[in-house]
Amino acid sequence: MNTYAKANDQYLTQRVIGASPEQLMAILLEGAQRFLAQAEQALAKRDFAAKAKAINRVTAIIEELTLRLNHEEGGELVGNLTRVYDWWGREIIAAGADLDSGRLERVSRQMADLRLAWEQSFQKRSMAGAIAAHGISAGDMVG
């Protein structure tokens, strides 16, 4: 392993260790998108071994996303995410079998949208915590 790869692994490890639940979901989606891009590139090059490896990694991330769902407290949102994750998994496998990079791209765009939602959720929670920590009321923030 070269020095750059080792530094990158250390950075990712620190990012994961310090992540909130929302940030961790965003990190997982970021990784899935990266592997989907690799699968698309492999399809373009007709490198089927690389395509299979990338698709397997995306599938593993989707399984991890599914395992992290809190079915006891999540309600309708968890049900919806379960269906989305299930569809992503089927779509990715079908795209790999059909050599259809457009389907991979569609899943990647959906992952980007969900990733943004997780990042915004974290920002809102962080902002609310900072406001509460400083004793600022909503009235103080408005003109």
SSE diagram, text form:
Blueprint: H1 3-17, H2 21-45, H3 48-67, H4 75-98, H5 101-133, H6 138-141
Helix pairs in contact: 2-3, 2-5, 3-4, 4-5
Describe what you observe in this structure:
The protein has 143 residues and is mainly alpha-helical. It has helices at residues 3-17, 21-45, 48-67, 75-98, 101-133, 138-141. α2 packs antiparallel against α5 (101-133), α3 packs antiparallel against α4 (75-98) and α4 (75-98) runs antiparallel to α5. The termini are far apart.
List keywords for this structure.
about 140 residues, mainly alpha, 6 helices, globular
Assign the CATH topology. Answer: Four Helix Bundle (Hemerythrin (Met), subunit A)
The level-1 CATH class: Mainly Alpha
Gyration radius, to the nearest Å?
18 Å
Task: Classify the secondary structure makeup into a structural class.
Answer: mainly alpha
Q: What is the H/E order?
A: HHHHHH
How can the largest sheet be summarized?
A: none
Second rung of CATH, namely the architecture: Up-down Bundle
Low-confidence stretches: 138-143
Q: Mean pLDDT, rounded to whole units?
A: 83
User: What does the overall shape look like?
Assistant: globular
Distance, first to last CA: 55 Å
Number of strands: 0
Question: In which range does the helix fraction lie?
Answer: over 70%
- Number of structurally distinct domains: 1
The total of helices stands at: 6
CATH superfamily, by name, is Flagellar protein FliS
Q: State which percent range the strand residues make up.
A: under 5%
